[in-house]
Structures are given as C-alpha cells and as structure tokens.
Amino acid sequence: MIRLEIPGSGFLELEHFVTDFSGTLSEDGALLPEIKDKLNELSGKLKIHVLTSDTFGRAKKELEGVNCTLHVLEGKGHTIQKEKYVINLGADKVVAFGNGNNDALMLMAARLGIAVCLREGCSKKAIEASQILVKSPTDAIDLLLLPKRLIATLRV
Predict the structure, then answer these.
(1) Is the pLDDT of residue 55 over 90?
(2) According to a count of CB atoms within 10 Å of the terminal CB, is the N or C end of the chain lower?
(3) CA–CA separation, 115 vs 111, rounded Å?
C-alpha cells in the first residue's frame, strides 16, 4: 500500500496499480527494457494489473518474470472493460496508467490517473482524464516509488 497526504487535496491510499500495455509500458509490442525491474520493485507496494488488447500479441511473453496479473481484453468495448476492472477493484484505491482513447474511462475512474506519452503518442481524451502527464513509464512509476515527486506535482 502507498499512503500519502497531498497538501490541499487529502490522502491517497493506493493498493492497486492498473496499467495499459501497448504504448504505455511497451513500444511496438516490446516491453521497455527498464520496466520489468521497476514493476517488480513496485509490486512490493501495490498489486499490479496489466490490461491490454494485446495489439501485437506479445504481452504474455514480454511480461514473463514480472509480478503482475495480466488480463487480455476480449471482444468489443475495451474502454468499458477497463473502467469496470478499476471499479471492481475499488477505484478509490487504484492508480492507473494509460495513453489511448480506450484508457480514458479507466484513468478517470481511478483515484489517480497518469497519462504516459511515448512515441505512439497520447490521446487528448487520456490526457484530459488524467491528473498527471509524464513522458515515460519509468517517470510514472518513479512518482510512486519516490512519493515526494508525486506530492510536489499534486499539492495545491
């Protein structure tokens, strides 16, 4: 669990980390090299859930050795599926990462939404649904591992 007081905004009590895979933790289906170690470090504080449409069909292989739950979305309505997943975990205990239109409802539902903008880009909807925009998943995870950064960004 991560528990922080954000001056002017109250407390964050996070138990779950829910993230998109393609374009958020990976580029062209390949997990960014430094992310595996970062996720495993973070798993000591939060339960990690990776939700993906698995555009490149490589998520399971790329996440081998990562302490996480992988959920491959099926059928249509991935935007709603992601939002419901966060709600079912208890949205007020969730931090979510994403970059696409299909992440916007998940980012909005979570207690803390962080938009991650890699080379694939970041949709306007994802940015507007988030409280923070970062340039890499490493920067985003470090906000959680080094919480004074998070406090500095969110304080009022």
Answers:
(1) no
(2) C
(3) 13
**C-alpha torsion 27→125→103→32, nearest 10:** 20
Q: What is the pLDDT of residue 12?
A: 92
Indicate whether 2 belongs to any domain: no
For residue 95, which of 154, 37, 53 has the smallest C-alpha distance? 154
Distance CA 148, CA 11 (A): 13
**Structural domain boundaries, residue 126:** 13-154
Mean predicted confidence (pLDDT) in 140-154: 94
**The pLDDT of residue 35 is above 90:** yes
Q: What's 64's DSSP letter?
A: T
Instruction: Specify if 8 maps to a domain.
Output: no
Note the pTM of the prediction, 2 decimals.
Answer: 0.94
Residue 47 has pLDDT above 90, yes or no: yes
Q: Is residue 108 one of the residues assigned to a domain? A: yes
DSSP state string for 68-129: SEEEE--SS-HHHHHHHHHHHH-GGGEEEEE-SGGGHHHHHHSSEEEEE--TT---HHHHHH
Residue type, 152: A
Count the Cβ atoms, other than its own, within 10 Å of residue 4.
17
